[in-house]
Amino acid sequence: ADLPTCLLCVCLTGSVYCEEVLPPMFTVPTLPKETAYLYARFNLIEKISTSDFGDIVTLKRIDLTGNKISEIEDGAFSKLTLLEDLNLSENRLVRLPMLPAKLIYFNANNNRLKTSGVKANAFKKMSHLRNLLLADNLLEAVPFIPDSVRILHLQNNNITEVNKDTFCKSNNTYYLRPSLSEVRLDGNPAVLSTYADSFTCMKVLPVGKYR
Q1: Contact 156, 135 (CB under 8 A)
Q2: If 0-12 CB within 10 Å is exposed, 13-18 middle and 19+ buried, where does residue 202 land?
Q3: What is the DSSP string of 106-130?
Q4: Neighbours of 190 (CB within 10 A)
Q5: Are 123 and 105 in contact (CB under 8 A)?
Q6: Which pLDDT belongs to residue 1?
Q7: Is the pLDDT of residue 2 over 70?
């Protein structure tokens, strides 16, 4: 029989720590009802199912860094209305599931994400999102970036171009993005000087290749 979660992991009030668990952990453990913070880094979890977090509506942070996750069912996070911090970095994702609208921090660095696996409006309704980290993937284009985003990491992807609507609005010359303070596009094929008029609404230029 499976060992109870709080024998395998460390359970403190509201927090569950399951890091590099032995025997190896291949699925998300059954969480105590009031769990707000889950740290399940550096295990061998391969898939996130709708049932994994279904009843744990108290979750505010989930950190699944460094697993082997290649699939997340679309409804896996849909009931997590309080979730603010989701870290899926260093996994094997080729597509993103539907994400909760209240996220403030989202990290999917070091996966295998292509633009075809990130819905055009994946981040559109996230009016609280501050940090959007999608570095070291296989994205061919910049996804829709909400106005609230302050830090955007897209370095080391396969982005070939940007346009006047990537960050700004071609039909609104008064539009500004005062929040955006760091944009990384280095390590992409796009030569950013070609698109100089695509950054007019920003207070900082993206880091990247200019010639």
Answers
A1: yes
A2: middle
A3: EE--SS---GGGS-TTTTTT-TT--
A4: 20
A5: no
A6: 43
A7: no
